[in-house]
Fold this sequence. Notes:
This protein is an alpha+beta fold. It folds into three domains: 2-44 and 246-292; 47-110 and 209-232, no CATH class; 122-205, no CATH class. The protein has helices at 2-13, 20-40, 251-264, 270-292, and strands spanning 47-57, 60-63, 67-75, 81-85, 102-109, 122-124, 133-141, 144-153, 159-161, 174-177, 185-188, 194-198, 207-211, 219-232. The N and C termini lie far apart (58 Å).
Amino acid sequence: MLKNILIDCAQKVGLNPSDSTNRLWLVTKINEAAREIYDSADLNGCLREQIFTITEVNQQITLPYYVEKIRGVRNADTKVKIKVQDMRPRYQTGNWFQNLLSWRVRFQSPIEHDITNATQLTISIPAPETSSFTVFITGSTPTSDKITESILFNPGDLKHITTNQFTSFPGIKLIGKDNIITNNVLIQDGEGNQLAIIPNKELESKYTIIQVTDQTEPFNIGLETFEVLFKLRFTPFYDDFDEYPCGSEYDKAIFWKFLEHYYANKEDGTQLAIAANAKCQQILNLIAKDGQSGVEKEIDFGKNRYLDLIDISNFGGYIPDLYGR
């Protein structure tokens, strides 16, 4: 947890973590180190799997804020694999259409769905905070392509309504706040529909938008469930007892990565930075090796490419086996 990493880092660089200025600098640098490690690979413990249910589709769906990167999808009922693509294949061949067994990862959005009409937004929290904080909304209005409105919540405030009406295009680009608080922040449109949630330990809302069909009209698909394997969103450290998404076994690796960054900015610190990087990588390799011990892994060789070349009607009743022999 942060408390342990903070003590190690503070002692090494000679700072007092009880001093608010020192603590802010230390936590910022620890988060930079932790994020770099997290982005470097799929670490042990960073993946989650969850079943999501879809009932009605209007081309796109939105995954929750804690989904950072999709690693795999399959239909929960049929067990059929869903191919996950980015936006480029659509434009590489003529007459391309989206296969029903594919998802297109489009972009990250601050809101769950588009705004249909220009509307004021309602920002609320379920219980009062003991300190003030500010919510920022950047987006388009009927008279401006891009403006930012700041909404101040004083202690005891539960709800505010924006002065501006926000529109669907160019749309909302950012919904954030300036501090870590106790409650999640809810943003709704003028009709009371949920547009976004800023988690209390996050500074902005962010959602993954997926296109699941080319069909332009909304359609009801019944109850469709999908198993999704994803990399959990990285949440920075703030409080003493905050833990790394992958667990406390990475605390020492974060400490050495912190030292690598620290020494790299010091005059004549290159060799110390290289040594700290090597120690960090050694710890990461040991954790990865330990996590793989005793775990069976299968290789998916895919479908036999020769199967579709065989027309069994020409074999006079003889049907080749699954290997095309």
